[in-house]
């Protein structure tokens, strides 16, 4: 059951944030390219990579490499910030009742990200031979 939940969360993460990074990439060329837009694009791209690696969780060919672990760490930090710190900020700014919808949407949007990242980080880390440089 855990494998199914992780894989569904991974697919949701990959689909939602690949669309977000695609839209961000298009907006970089159409609009004004600022540092915030570039950082947002790369964070969404790394979250998409986390979903890409986590979608094979529980299968016999599931392996992690250093890039997947790095993207999972970034995704866990970003997801943790948006799940834990932003609701505190919203409720302090305008009260819990007024910011309930925003807090609920953040939980719905970033819970699959956190679940996918934890699945990659807590799995048995078997580095693939290509990632290690195929040393003999």
Keywords:
globular, mainly alpha, 136 residues, 74% helix, 0% strand
Low-pLDDT residue intervals, each spanning 5 or more residues:
none
Q: Percent of residues in helical segments? A: over 70%
Please trace the helix and strand order, writing H or E for each element.
HHHH
Structural class, from secondary structure content?
mainly alpha
User: How far do the termini sit from each other?
Assistant: 39 Å
- Radius of gyration, in Å, reads 17 Å
- Average residue-wise pLDDT: 84
Strands, count: 0
- Counting DSSP H or I runs of 4 or more residues, the number of helices is 4
- What fraction strand? under 5%
Shape summary: globular
Most strands sheet: none
Can you walk me through this structure?
The model has no long low-confidence stretch (mean pLDDT 84). Helix 1 (2-30) packs antiparallel against helix 2, helix 1 (2-30) crosses helix 4 and helix 3 (66-94) runs antiparallel to helix 4 (100-122). This protein has helices at 2-30, 35-54, 66-94, 100-122. It is mainly alpha-helical.
């Amino acid at each position: 059951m855990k494998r199914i939940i992780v894989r569904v969360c991974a697919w949701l993460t990959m689909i939602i944030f690949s669309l977000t990074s695609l839209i961000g990439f298009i907006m970089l060329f159409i609009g004004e390219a600022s540092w915030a837009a570039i950082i947002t694009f790369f964070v969404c791209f790394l979250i998409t990579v986390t979903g890409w690696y986590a979608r094979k969780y529980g299968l016999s060919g599931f392996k992690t490499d250093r890039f997947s672990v790095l993207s999972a760490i970034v995704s866990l930090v970003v997801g943790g910030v948006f799940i834990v710190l932003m609701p505190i900020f919203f409720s302090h700014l305008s009260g819990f009742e007024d910011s309930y919808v925003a807090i609920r949407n953040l939980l719905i949007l970033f819970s699959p990200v956190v679940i996918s990242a934890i699945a990659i980080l807590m799995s048995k880390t078997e580095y693939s031979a290509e990632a290690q440089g195929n040393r003999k």
